[in-house]
Predict the structure.
Amino acid sequence: MKKIKYPASKDWPKLLRRPSQPVEEIEQTVKEIFSEVRTKKDVALKKYTNLFDGVELETLQVSKSVLKSAKTGIDPSLAAAIHTAKENIIKFHEVQRSGALSVETMPGVNCWQIKRPIQKVGLYIPGGSAPLFSTVLMLAVPAMLAGCEEIVLCTPPGSGGQVDPAILYTADLCGIEKVYTIGGIQAIAALTFGTETIPAVYKIFGPGNQFVTAAKQYATKFGLAIDMPAGPSELLVFADDSARPDFIAADLLSQAEHGPDSQVILVSTSEEMLDEVAREVDLQMAVLPRKEIATKAIENSKLILVENSEIALQLINDYGPEHFIVNSRDEGFFIDNIQNAGSVFVGPYSPESAGDYASGTNHTLPTNGYARQYSGVTLDSFLKSISFQQISCDGLKSLGPVVEIMAEAEGLQAHRNAVSIRLKQIAKNE
Amino acid sequence: MKKIKYPASKDWPKLLRRPSQPVEEIEQTVKEIFSEVRTKKDVALKKYTNLFDGVELETLQVSKSVLKSAKTGIDPSLAAAIHTAKENIIKFHEVQRSGALSVETMPGVNCWQIKRPIQKVGLYIPGGSAPLFSTVLMLAVPAMLAGCEEIVLCTPPGSGGQVDPAILYTADLCGIEKVYTIGGIQAIAALTFGTETIPAVYKIFGPGNQFVTAAKQYATKFGLAIDMPAGPSELLVFADDSARPDFIAADLLSQAEHGPDSQVILVSTSEEMLDEVAREVDLQMAVLPRKEIATKAIENSKLILVENSEIALQLINDYGPEHFIVNSRDEGFFIDNIQNAGSVFVGPYSPESAGDYASGTNHTLPTNGYARQYSGVTLDSFLKSISFQQISCDGLKSLGPVVEIMAEAEGLQAHRNAVSIRLKQIAKNE
């Protein structure tokens, strides 16, 4: 691990720079697959599944009976754990529900705001080395709570053409009926245009590799929304000398095992802490099954020594980490003043893993510095706000002249007329 | 106006299709200007301002004294109107403020969510035929309420190099100190990369022509967020036979005068109403100063006759209008069931102009069908949510085993370890 002592703030941008994403390069591939899925639909999906996943699919949709019987394929203790996690995620997202907001801005001028579900949403669950059933929970629970009418889940088939039973069990537990064994760029294209089998949606959620990420960004050109731009996962820990190096090391490694491009940063006011954590990382890493991946990520990780909590905070806000663990006597200072972070874990017994799986918070979070301007996935990600107004005759008598003057000043006479014609009628009625 | 009677729902997509936006075509221009502004900064801004606006700028920033003295350049009645509008906009956006949300998902597992302002935001105010000081209000008021630290306003210079005093007055009234006389693609590039004079921001808000729209979309490739994709303004009115044709006609024309590409649709269960509105439109249009523009928009507008309110609702939800006026005995049915609309105006005395200027609701709204998945600008547009968690030893004793099982099942042993190492320590302490 590379140790940097007291870096000057002018050097932070370089120090904190993330690896750039080669999105542009693969845009051509994305364009081609989108174009083919748009015209050839299911046929194109099967072709690309054969090409990329090495699987000949007969049907794209997972049947109801396969969904319902998934439970038999998983350990009862896992089923119980998923159930507990789901309950916690429900609780945290349910508390985010806001009722109608209403205000009478002037007597007789009633304005209100109501949130309505996005009717059709697509959830993408990556395949790869691990069956990410936790991501099913993180996306399906708020989608169901929001009341989205049509929830479509796409996930790539395993080598035998099947989907991991834990993913199917979780989808079924969350009430999702439309599950398709399609992954990669072709899945995002299917959700964008719709095919004979897969319905088009209005917004696509979920993580993925660089191909899926590029495909999601391309989908926005066709009028779709996406949850957020994605990049490699990140963890920044602030630890003063009150922290436990073994806990911190375990947290850094839990991030490092995600992938060789995972971003891992430890900031401390104590050089001893940095050194002890580095030693602990080496010890713990030696016995990890995903040691090779973790080693690569740890090689690129940084130990940063800073003068005090204020400077640490500034640096952390500049970086905008996806995950931020704070183990410090000053934890209140960081809670009160953190501006840019996806999710914050406070105190020695709040590991990132808790939020990754089961505490209730969402693990779909802004990476790559996007915490500066994006929230992670919340209940609101599946809703949109509509504003309403209803104005009485008396209300328009007060408000109307204001609108007339402003419309006139902007040179929009017809805007003014829409008020004037009503004010004239009100005067006539009186 | 084209009248369509009882269209079959299979024909709605074609009937309701918006004109496509030629964004791709101008991407090359956008790329070039971005590249030049990125490297040559202020020099490039001045060059393009000369080229596109025909103005030689000495300084890019509007001085404090010019900002402060803008009030003398506008009519006191306009200043008073802007002040009233601002108060109403404050009231409607202030009610959107949500405090910290907190829940103990399991005993000892405390999760909460706090919203924090986006620190740096850019507001783009278009130039063109009308000084859109109303848009300054709609963007600056929620930005100030949210607590954004750095608010940067860009607007193109008029032919004399000046900015309209109403825009400057409104900016000053809202407490904005950083106002720059730069417009078009070069302004968006400046907000993206920063120059010697103009600070880079994290999110860009505001309407604009197709060049500005394409530039905003391009800015997202450099890590910026934007308020929403933009298209020509739209109004859909539903009127049953209880509506007043003269009021409706005035509303349709207020939309039509925005531009020849404005979208204007009237849906009714009464053919008589459609015909009467068409007659009224002709009468009222004849005397409008922006008659030429309105005539073109009205030529493309549609009068759609439908069987009943249920079918009307379906069609409206399929279209997802930016503005939706409902003048009907059934207004409650539409309020309760509208799914996709930016802003809804209920009853005969709630013209769209009220919301465009002064009732309090925001006029920055999703066009082009984006109401299906995007909200208009709200207080939340200037905030992002951060989730927090703090877990006690007892909390981790309940939650930890759940996380261990799930992490193990996803093959992420280091995630499991981060919990196990803590549970062991807790056991040791007991």
User: Anything to note?
Assistant: Chain B is about 45% helix and 15% strand. The mean pLDDT of chain B is 95. Chain B touches chain A through 132 residues (CB under 8 Å).
